[in-house]
Amino acid sequence: METPHTQQPPTDPAQQILSTVRHRDPNQPEFLQAVEEVVLSLAPLLEAEPKYVRVLELLCEPERAIQFRVPWLDDAGNFQVNRGFRVQFNQAIGPYKGGLRFHPSVNLSIVKFLGFEQTFKDALTTLPMGGAKGGSDFNPRGRSDNEVMKFCQSFMTELAKHIGPDTDVPAGDMGVGAREIGYLFGQYKRLTGAFHGVLTGKGLSFGGSLIRKEACLLYTSDAADEEDSVDLGGRRIIKKKKKSRCNAKRHSNQIRRDR
Fold first, then answer.
1. What is the pLDDT of residues 44-79, one digit of tens each?
2. Closest CA to 212 of 242, 257, 172, 152
3. 3-state SS, one letter per residue, for 24-92
4. Tally of CB atoms within 10 A around 202
């Protein structure tokens, strides 16, 4: 009798990692795509330095994935229920750091994908920050301020158990602006009785940064970089050539409102 054919595990380091991740999370396409892009881009390094294979494999598994129910009351007096998420991916170099996204498309796969990439983004800042991401499938669009406030208060009632200034510091993201951050921070203070720097993106009146908006730079694409200026919906990008302190040639783009 013929013995059944058994598939041999891949010998390529990158494919070994991807095979493990696909086996664990076959129904998370967004997360798998993000992992594939990172792992395949690092394939030459993994072949040259096998010691990093195990490190990258560990980085592909979040340290903690939290999912919770978010019940709240709308203006019509009806109970609504949404899902809340916080994926604390890696804190090897510092507290978890990453935004909160409120959008109907949010699910565990998307939050894991965002948290995975956030780990590398935060590490590249050279600051001691780990990577995390969170959010909910709640859609603030079309909701009254009162409904958004009630949702944010319910969301933070659970999230507060898992965050802190030395543990996890969330921020805003899609669907989470200054209004939502204010409601979330207010509820956090009610629950803890402390004024901690546990959320970034706060308003100036309660601990926010003075030039947060002005500090956000818009980097144009290579195609737009060939032009002296580009108009974007009432804003003009003025290109100025500068040399950084390390003598690398870069383009610093200043955003200026048309007056």
1. 999 999 999 999 999 999 999 999 999 999 999 999
2. 172
3. HCCCCHHHHHHHHHHHHHCHHHHHHCCHHHHHHHHHCCCCEEEEEEEEEECCCCCEEEEEEEEEEEECC
4. 20
pLDDT of residue 99: 95
Q: Tokens 């598994």 — which residue?
A: 61
> What is the C-alpha separation between 162 and 66, in angstroms, rounded?
9
Which residues are 69's β-sheet partners? Answer: 83
User: For residue 235, what pLDDT band results from cuts at 50, 70 and 90?
Assistant: low
- Selection from 210, 208, 190, 212 nearest residue 199 by Cα: 208
Residue linked to tokens 């499938």: 137
Active site residue 240: no
**Mean predicted confidence (pLDDT) in 3-32:** 84
By C-alpha distance, which of 62, 37, 136 is closest to 29?
37
Number of other CB atoms surrounding residue 83 within 10 Å? 15
Q: Count the neighbouring beta carbons within 10 Å of the beta carbon of residue 30.
A: 17
**Could you say which of 97, 112, 133, 202 is catalytic?**
133
With 0-12 / 13-18 / 19 or more C-beta atoms within 10 angstroms meaning exposed / middle / buried, residue 137 is middle
pLDDT digits (tens, 9 = 90+) for 154-204: 999 999 999 999 999 999 999 999 999 999 999 999 999 988 888 887 666
Residue 134 CA, distance from chain mean position: 7
| pLDDT for residue 242 | 43
Cα distance between residue 40 and residue 38, in whole Å: 6
Whole-structure pTM value: 0.77
